[in-house]
């Protein structure tokens, strides 16, 4: 037994170091998650922390997978060490990209929400910022997914095509999803020409009257007087002739019909 331990002394020390490193990294990740959650709740009370929990889950899984790959060096031939090294680098790269993507998306989302809240408090129009928030978040996640695809040689061509052939993809997407693109373009038209903004009282049809609550990439949300949400695709609302009661002069003019009756009294 002693001879066996002396023979594999370096391997045992290496394995213990790897296990300790994984445990330490998981402890640090949990402490970092606790601290970030506390700071987020103090600076942005009521803000959900699902993104931080997802980041914690990804990092903890990353440390375990990297630890298992590192321990695999003890059980495979030296001829396979290069393959393990490549796998280690790939997993580390994907983990870092996913973590940075979540951090970038969460930071952008918080910044936009904070700025939108300030605009609402100062009675400025937050419509453009709300719409831009959706575009930025989708862009961040799209880039993160493409960067993850670059880690796989078999999918690298797909990612490079997506990054370099945006025009071709736009044509294909336009043919395959004309309605979805029409809604996105409709949303851009609403933000650009501003026929209405968030908070305006609008009438699209006799059954769709209420205040605008949100404008997304796909649809516009209106809260009617029954406190129900009406979701209208942007492509449809762009085609309709709507009435915006909050645009321009707020005074209302009504035609009144007066009838005069003459009474003749004979004496």
Gross morphology is elongated
Count of β-strands: 5
Tell me which CATH architecture of the domain at 179-244 applies here.
Answer: Roll
Just give the CATH class of the domain at 179-244. Mainly Beta
Protein structure class: alpha+beta
User: How large, in whole angstroms, is the Cα Rg?
Assistant: 30 Å
How much beta, percentage-wise? Answer: 5-15%
Strand order of the largest sheet: 4-3-2-1-5
Helix/strand order? HHHHHHHHEEEEHE
Measured distance between first and last alpha carbons: 139 Å
The DSSP helix count reads 9
CATH topology of the domain at 179-244: SH3 type barrels
| Helix percentage range | 55-70%
Mean pLDDT: 79
Largest sheet: 5 strands, antiparallel
Return residue spans where pLDDT drops below 50 for at least 5 consecutive residues. none
List keywords for this structure.
65% helix; 10% strand; SH3 type barrels; 267 residues; 5 strands; 9 helices; alpha+beta
Draw up the topology in text:
Blueprint: H1 2-7, H2 9-43, H3 50-72, H4 81-121, H5 127-149, H6 153-164, H7 166-176, H8 178-193, E1 201-205, E2 208-215, E3 219-224, E4 229-233, H9 234-239, E5 243-244
Antiparallel strand pairs: 1-2, 1-5, 2-3, 3-4
Helix pairs in contact: 2-3, 3-4, 4-5
């Amino acid at each position: 037994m002693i001879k066996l331990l002396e023979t594999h002394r370096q391997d045992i020390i290496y394995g213990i170091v790897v296990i300790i490193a994984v445990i330490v990294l998981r402890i640090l990740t949990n402490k970092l998650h606790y601290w970030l959650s506390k700071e987020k709740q103090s600076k942005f009370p009521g803000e959900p922390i699902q993104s931080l929990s997802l980041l914690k889950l990804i990092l903890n899984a990353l440390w375990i997978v990297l630890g298992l790959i590192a321990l695999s060096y003890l059980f495979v031939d030296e001829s396979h060490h290069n393959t393990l090294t490549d796998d280690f680098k790939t997993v580390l790269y994907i983990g870092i990209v996913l973590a940075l993507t979540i951090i970038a998306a969460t930071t952008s989302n918080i910044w936009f929400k904070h700025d939108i809240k300030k605009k609402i408090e100062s009675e400025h129009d937050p419509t453009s910022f709300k719409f831009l928030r959706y575009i930025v978040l989708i862009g961040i996640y799209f880039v993160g997914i493409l960067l993850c695809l670059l880690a796989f040689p078999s999918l690298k061509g797909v990612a490079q095509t997506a990054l370099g052939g945006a025009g071709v993809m736009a044509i294909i997407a336009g043919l395959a999803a004309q309605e979805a693109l029409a809604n996105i373009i409709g949303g851009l038209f609403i933000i650009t020409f501003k026929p209405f903004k968030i908070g305006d009282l609008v009438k699209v049809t006799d059954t769709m009257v209420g205040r605008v609550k949100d404008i997304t990439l796909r649809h516009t949300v209106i809260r009617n007087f029954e406190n129900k949400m009406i979701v209208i695709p942007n492509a449809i609302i762009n085609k309709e002739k709507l009435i915006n009661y909050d645009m321009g002069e707020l005074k209302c003019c009504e035609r009144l019909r007066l009838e005069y009756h003459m009474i003749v009294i004979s004496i």
